[in-house]
Amino acid sequence: MTVSKKTIVLGSRGSMLALWQTNYVKALLEVAVPDYEYRIEVVHTKGDKILDVALSKFGDKGLFTKELERGLLDGSLDLCVHSMKDMPTMLPEGLGILGVPERACPNDVLVSLEKGMTLDALPAGSRVATGSLRRVAQLHRLRPDVEACEIRGNVDSRISRVESGEFDAAILAAAGIERLGFGEHIASLIPVEAMVPAVGQGAIAIEGRSGDAVASMLCSAVSDMQTMRAVAAERIVLRALEGGCQVPMGVYAFEAGTGVDAVFSMDAFVSSLDGAKFLHAHAEGAPFESGALAQNVSDDLRAQGADVILEELR
């Protein structure tokens, strides 16, 4: 007699990138814990339905997560897969980020028809598309002679608008482009030292019910501890400064080396939208100090006047 396996339902947004990420997690789970069947349920979020409004105009911090979280709370979903950078700092009671697989490339990239084109080499007056205030502020600081242009939509539609000549270039996340197989459209990688990534950029969040032992076991089986530590530290800074899509800020943490030689490094910035007021903080230490280092970075930015800048923006 064949015993049927219990089915774990994974919630996902319906975009190409969201489905790629959820199928990626599903494949990891099928290898790591083959005792279960895994099925994907597509849920359309508010952020998927409203594409003609800039992300910075929304006050709703759960733009891409709320509908999925309802499924977790009512039991129709067992786990939800998100882009980490879409996750609000405060989650609904009873839910948590239970797993984070190994992070992909965290960098931003320049998309241009000219292969090898860099941010530094863009001609003055170029129209550069981005939907992120974080990128806009850093672009103004690095290249005040180019024009930052608002854009929304999926990765493929953004690329096509550059190819059609509507924009001279676009700045997107490397992870999204590479995951969807559009790597040939990358003109150049922007160093994280030049453009600090968004909190959690390149990482995938697996959200579930906090008290669900099965969900916790599944997530633990596919998680990468270094990535979890880095992202958790980045989110401490985000929460401390109450940042999000509405403010120009970025935080990036990573570990280099192994064992007793491992070093945990973190960089963060807060900026005015025009890039004129640009505050930067850096900290490094042992990986076990990651939480304290994140708090040090938050305190440093505050001491430099981050609260004043953020309040003006809000």
Shape label: globular
Element order, helices and strands? EHEHHEEEEHEHEHEEHHEEEHH
Q: Could you give the order of strands across the largest sheet?
A: 2-1-3-10-4
State the fourth-level CATH superfamily of the largest domain.
Answer: Periplasmic binding protein-like II
Tell me the name of the CATH class of the largest domain. Alpha Beta
Describe the structure.
The relative contact order is 0.15. The protein has helices at 16-32, 46-49, 66-74, 133-142, 155-163, 174-179, 213-221, 225-241, 290-304, 306-313, and strands at 7-12, 37-42, 79-83, 95-99, 108-111, 127-129, 147-149, 169-173, 186-190, 204-209, 249-256, 263-271, 278-285. By secondary structure, it is α/β, with parallel strands linked by helices. It has a 5-stranded mixed β-sheet, sandwiched between helices. The chain is globular, with a radius of gyration of 20 Å. The chain folds into 3 domains: 7-101 and 203-223, D-Maltodextrin-Binding Protein, domain 2; 108-190, Periplasmic binding protein-like II (D-Maltodextrin-Binding Protein, domain 2), CATH 3.40.190; 237-313, Double Stranded RNA Binding Domain. The longest helix is centred in the N-terminal third of the chain and has 17 residues, at 16-32. A hairpin with a 6-residue loop joins strand 11 (249-256) and strand 12.
